[in-house]
TrEMBL record, chain A:
Every Cytochrome oxidase subunit I profile domain range: 40-558
Species assigned in the record: Paenibacillus mendelii
Keyword Iron: yes
Regions crossing the membrane: 20-41, 62-82, 102-127, 139-162, 189-210, 230-255, 287-305, 317-336, 348-368, 380-404, 416-440, 452-477, 497-518, 599-632
Family to which the UniProt record says this protein belongs: Belongs to the heme-copper respiratory oxidase family.
Keywords from the named record: Copper, Electron transport, Heme, Iron, Membrane, Metal-binding, Respiratory chain, Transmembrane, Transmembrane helix, Transport
Name of the protein described by the UniProt record: Cbb3-type cytochrome c oxidase subunit I
Signal peptide: none
Keyword Membrane appears in the UniProt entry: yes
Automatic annotation (TrEMBL), chain B:
Entry keyword Metal-binding: no
Keywords: Cell membrane, Electron transport, Membrane, Oxidoreductase, Transmembrane, Transmembrane helix, Transport
Record-stated family: Belongs to the cytochrome c oxidase bacterial subunit 4 family.
Protein name: Cytochrome o ubiquinol oxidase subunit IV
Natural source organism: Paenibacillus mendelii
Alphabetical list of InterPro entries matching this protein: Cyt_c_oxidase_su4_prok, Cyt_o_ubiqinol_oxidase_su4, Cytochrome_c_oxidase_bac_sub4
């Protein structure tokens, strides 16, 4: 019996690496301390009622952002481990196998479990407030989306202590991700982690399209909508068309691995290149999915801190929509070297270059918005200003890569690594940070400390350029991506040393940001105005943090920057607005089903990974039962009475000084 | 939430009847049985079987759209129709693009 347990455990848990044992110990310690603290302070009921079962878009958004910060930490540690391995030639810190696992999990986590939830978090907290709605169109579905993402992310992250991490790169190209070359459970963790969270992403895409099209405040025509919801709309359109491709592709890969199919194997009539073709049909739109909302955030911030209306509103809208559609026409530029001939490569090189045009139009719009504006340099604006040169240069190296003949030289070199980090960190990460700093007061009712924020900004920026500029040169010198080590005779080590120092600076910058949050909570200076940046759009017209129902009375919109125009009218003493009478507010009830159902999905996914049929069946039956229970539950809404609204509003407006 | 009340599906009585749902269900079952029977019994081969299977798939899509997605019952603005057209365009891009890329692949062929 004992022998059996021992042999099971030695397969089930990852053994033999001191780093992993360290992680095991810290996971157990962290779990014990969380359980202890929660029990000691009797917070379990609070956690369940206020967070786990909540369908409030603001709370779901905060949970998304919190989860993405945890994932940023995990992915960042992966990055630092890789940079530590590459700091000098012939380093013996990580074994090549372990290195493969780390670059794989780094990529997957940063794109799918950091950037995506950070983006969904910002969608959730801001879109309903900006369009004057009380929640998203489908609040239950929204909670389900979050918990599906969460269980998918947990399933994926479990792989490094149980079963073994995936190690076939962030897109898991076959044949290496096929059963023949990769028999362990790592790739199945990859498939099911992404599949389960992918269901959530697709539902969020649908949810926000409906919210934006159907739930805008009275009078807010589409062309009067703020720019951030526009960017969300264009991003969600790309989500609903591209995520099904990912789901289908990974399902086929799963059939190859689980049921002995031959879609992507080298034998039996399969073709691994078909996988590469299919996965990039999702993969390319995906990078626009995450960067478009960042463009929306910058548009809001530039306009607020330049105190001017956004320049070229219509061209901005068209540019985003064009990018969203064009993103489906460029995927083959990821595999120019696959050998599809000059015609195919020429077509996809041209479409890729075309995308630079709408993107360039947006950059000019931001510059012209700033032109002759009264710019102030608070942290959100700093990130925006840092973003523009960074994204422009990063975009230009992208255009270099899109030149198909030259790409045969750049392909899979560090030049490429530098390029995509350049645009994803410089565009997406800087954008979401800008958005988080900008909307933080709306989320929590206080600003983050400015001076520490400036330190974090400069550390991030200096670290970023130190880390990635040398990598362009390294790529041209012949260093290929995913090498675990290199020799002294290559002449690469000085540049790699600089790059590692840069990565370290970004690591410090992240710590400074966490310190900034802790410091700001400790020295809390409550913002009583609800409008600390002198904002222009509707989210600033309500108190911070927003009450449960967001708007006591729904706003009547007449202008593009509604709140700004309203403030101008008030300054001139012309504000006609007699607040309309309060009415009972219709709200969705909390529900535990999203959480429970996602846990069943987690169980089913875990069963699929280890091919335990009993757990698969139990998990899927649980999912089905949850769906049935929810289908027959008609008691899912309630009304907030006028009295309660009055009490809440009075409590918010009361100044206890 | 409150904006929703006017467009409550039950109240507006927009969606299909028992008859249309039953009909749709029968059509979709029949369109599933035909390809399964053809493949299992080996009635057709080669190009003929591909064509019949693909036609059954396309008809299945149409049945789903009309009977379950209520494409015809839409009022203005026609978001469903616009989305459908965009979806078809992207579907064509995916299928034709993949064929173009893979058939001209000098390594695979």
């Amino acid at each position: 019996m004992w022998e059996k347990v021992k042999s099971f455990a030695s397969d089930f848990f990852v053994t033999g690496d001191p780093l992993i044992y360290g992680a095991d110990v810290s996971i157990v310690l962290a779990a014990i301390s969380i359980v202890f603290v929660m029990t000691y302070f009797k917070k379990w009921g609070w956690l369940w009622r206020e967070w786990l079962t909540s369908v409030d878009h603001k709370k779901i958004g905060i949970m998304y952002i919190l989860a993405s910060f945890l994932m940023l930490f995990r992915g960042g540690v992966d990055a630092l481990l890789m940079r530590a391995q590459l700091v000098v030639p012939e380093m013996e810190f990580l074994t090549p196998d372990h290195y493969n696992q780390i670059f794989t999990t780094h990529g997957v986590i940063m794109i799918l479990f950091m950037a995506m939830p950070f983006m969904f978090g910002l969608f959730n907290v801001i879109v309903p407030l900006q369009i004057g709605a009380r929640d998203v169109a489908f609040p239950f579905l929204n909670a389900l989306s979050f918990w599906l993402f969460f269980s998918g992310a947990m399933l994926f992250n479990l792989s490094f202590v149980i079963g073994g991490s995936p190690d076939a790169g962030w897109l898991a190209y076959p044949p290496y991700s096929g059963l023949m070359h990769n028999p362990g459970p790592g790739q199945d963790f990859y498939i099911w982690g992404i599949q389960i969270s992918g269901i959530g992403s697709l539902m969020t895409g649908i949810n926000f399209i409906v919210t934006i099209l159907k739930m805008r405040a009275p009078g807010m025509k589409l062309m009067k909508m703020p720019m951030f919801p526009w960017s969300v709309l264009s991003s969600c359109i790309a989500i609903i068309f591209s995520f099904p491709i990912l789901t289908a592709t990974l399902a086929l890969l799963f059939l190859d691995r689980y049921a002995g199919a031959h879609f992507f194997t080298l034998d039996g009539g399969g073709n691994p290149m078909m996988y590469i073709n299919l996965i990039w049909m999702w993969g390319h739109p995906e990078v626009y999915i995450i960067v478009l909302p960042a463009f929306g955030i910058f548009s809001e911030i530039v306009s607020t801190f330049a105190k001017k209306k956004l320049f070229g509103y219509k061209s901005m809208v068209y540019a985003m929509m064009i990018i969203s559609i064009l993103s489906f026409l460029v995927w083959a530029h990821h595999f120019f070297t696959m050998g599809s001939g000059a015609d195919v490569n020429a077509f996809f090189a041209l479409t890729t270059m075309l995308i630079a045009i709408p993107t360039g139009a947006k950059v000019f719009n931001w510059l012209f918005t700033m032109f002759r504006g009264k710019i102030t340099f608070e942290t959100p604006m700093l990130w925006t200003i840092g973003f523009i040169p960074c994204f422009v240069t990063g975009g230009m190296t992208g255009v270099l890569l899109s030149v198909a003949p030259a790409d045969f030289q750049f392909h899979n070199s560090y030049f490429l690594v530098a390029h995509f980090h350049h645009v994803i960190i410089g565009g997406v990460v800087f954008g979401y940070f800008a958005g988080l700093y900008y909307w933080w007061p709306k989320l929590f009712g206080f600003k983050l400390h400015e001076r520490i924020g400036k330190w974090a900004f400069w550390l991030w920026n200096i670290g970023f350029y130190l880390c990635f500029m040398p990598q362009y040169a390294l790529g041209l010198m012949g260093m290929t991506r995913r090498v675990a080590t290199y020799g002294w005779d290559k002449g690469w080590w000085e540049m790699n040393l600089v790059s590692t120092i840069g990565a370290g600076l970004m690591g410090i910058a992240f710590v400074v940001q966490v310190w900034q949050i802790v410091y700001s909570v400790k020295h809390l200076r409550k913002d009583r105005t609800g409008d600390p940046w002198n904002g222009r759009t509707l989210e600033w017209s309500i108190p911070s943090p927003a009450p449960l129902y967001n708007f006591a009375t729904l706003p009547q919109v007449t202008a593009q920057d509604e709140w700004w125009e309203e403030k101008l009218l008030r300054d001139n003493g012309q504000s006609s607005s007699v607040p309309p009478a309060l009415e009972p507010i219709h709200m969705p009830k909390n529900s535990g089903i999203p959480f429970v159902m996602s846990m069943f999905w987690f169980a089913a996914g875990f069963g699929f990974v280890f091919q335990w049929l009993w757990l698969i069946i139990a998990g899927l039956v649980g999912v089905a039962v949850c769906m049935l229970v929810h289908s027959f539950n008609y008691d899912n809404d309630y009304y907030i009475s006028v009295d309660e609204i009055k009490r809440t509003e009075a409590a918010i407006r009361e100044v206890p000084n | 939430m409150t904006q929703h009340e006017g467009t409550n599906p039950q109240a507006a009585g927009l969606h299909g009847s028992l008859k249309s749902y039953t009909l749709g269900f029968l059509f979709s079952i029949v369109l599933t049985i035909i390809p399964v029977a053809i493949v299992m019994n080996g009635w057709l081969e080669g190009a003929a079987s591909s064509i019949v299977l693909m036609m059954a798939a396309v008809l299945q899509l149409v049945v789903q759209l009309i009977f379950f997605m209520h494409l015809r019952e839409e009022k203005k603005p026609r978001y469903n129709l616009v989305t459908l057209i965009l979806g078809l365009v992207i579907l064509l891009v995916i299928v034709l693009g993949s064929m173009w890329i893979m058939l001209y692949n000098t390594v695979a062929t």
